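Input C-alpha cells:
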C-alpha cells in the first residue's frame, strides 16, 4: 500500500528579503513561516527546510528503532531522538552537508552493545536515512539511560 504525503509552500519576494509559509496538507503539520535569514542563522521563531528534514529524520528513525526493538522482543519504554541537518555554503551554492542522530533509549534488559547494533540497523533501514544515504554523511550516537 503506497501512501503519498504532501506539503505546500508559498514564497513572496526575493530571497534575501522575502518570506514564505509551509504547511502539510494532512492537518498534522501546521502552517509555519520560513525565511532565508532563518536558514542562515537568525531563526527568530521561523522554521527551515533543514529543521523539517531533521524532524522527519528523528520521527522516522524513532519508528524504525522501535519496530526493530519490538521484533527483537525488547520493546522500548522510551526513545528520545534528536536529529540535525547541517546547511552550509559549498562553493558558489548551499547544500545540506551532514546529518546527525542521537538517541537515548530506555529498553529494559538490553545491553549497550545490543542497543547500538539495533540503532545502527534502524539508521540504515529508516526510509529518510535512505533518501540521504550517499548524499550526506549520517552520524549516529546511541546510548541507554
Amino acid at each position: 500500500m503506497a501512501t503519498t504525503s504532501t506539503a505546500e509552500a508559498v514564497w513572496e519576494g526575493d530571497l534575501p528579503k522575502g518570506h514564505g509559509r509551509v504547511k502539510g496538507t494532512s492537518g498534522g503539520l501546521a502552517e509555519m513561516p520560513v525565511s532565508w535569514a532563518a536558514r542562515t542563522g537568525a531563526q527568530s521563531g521561523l522554521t527551515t527546510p533543514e529543521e523539517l528534514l531533521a524532524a522527519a529524520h528523528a520521527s522516522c528513525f524513532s519508528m524504525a528503532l522501535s519496530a526493530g526493538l519490538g521484533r527483537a522482543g525488547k520493546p522500548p519504554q522510551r526513545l528520545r531522538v534528536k536529529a540535525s541537518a547541517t546547511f552550509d555554503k559549498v562553493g558558489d551554492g548551499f547544500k545540506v552537508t551532514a546529518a546527525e542522530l542521537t538517541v537515548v533509549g530506555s529498553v529494559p534488559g538490553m545491553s549497550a552493545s545490543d542497543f547500538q547494533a539495533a540503532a545502527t540497523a534502524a539508521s540504515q533501514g529508516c526510509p529518510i536515512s535512505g533518501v540521504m544515504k550517499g548524499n550526506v554523511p549520517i552520524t549516529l550516537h546511541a546510548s541507554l539511560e
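The helical segments are 36-39, 49-71, 112-125, 127-132. The chain has a mean pLDDT of 94.
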